[in-house]
Amino acid sequence: MGAKLLEDSSTPLYQQVANDLKTTIENGIYRVGQKIPPEPELSQLYSVSRITVRKAIELLVEDGLLSKRQGKGTFVRQSEPSRKIRDDRSSKVMGFSESCRANGVVPGAVLLSRAVEPVPEEERPFFGPDVEQVISIDRVRTADGQPLMVESNLFAAPGLEFLENAPLDDSSLFDIIAEKTDRHAVRGSAQSLNIMLADERLAKLLNVPIGEPLFYLLGHYHDQFGKPLYVGKQFIIGSRYTFTM
Questions:
Q1: What is the pTM of this model?
Q2: Dist CA 233 CA 240 (whole Å)
């Protein structure tokens, strides 16, 4: 505990303090129900102001890792265990909702934005000359009510125009498309999986600290007829998800 903070980092000092405190809790240095040091001691330990420490603690209280008890101090909070979701892509492309249901978890979705727009220049080779417009859909996906993934998808508009008005909160895009067209993404589609760190926007949407490790899954998916279906970008909390490819 008391990791050296980086003054020239793009991550604010309070976030760095919060990240280090979170690590100490996850490593069992402070256990559930245990009191953490008071603000003056933490301020001295991290060589930052008490305002910075207070902001870091407030962040962890909002995240549910700490709780304040009037007149007694700040304590590590008992949290609900998070079930890890296994996305098995060894034989087919599983949608998020299907993966959740296979793991006994209730899937959900919150629509962030939806728009019809021209095919981005960098995606023209994938969509080809017959697709001039895409339907852009951004959502936060939840598991048992907790945010787990931010997805940003571009669907080939021809034949999928119904997505412009379909109800997309707490629904599966895979299911909607299959019911309307009988099309589905195939496993042979190009997919790449990388690790990235949550920026301010993703951290806020996923309710995680800035710098939290995320899976970044990029896929260019064709349907079973060989036609371009969609380009999908998914930003997933790494500690709660695993892939079988």
A1: 0.69
A2: 18
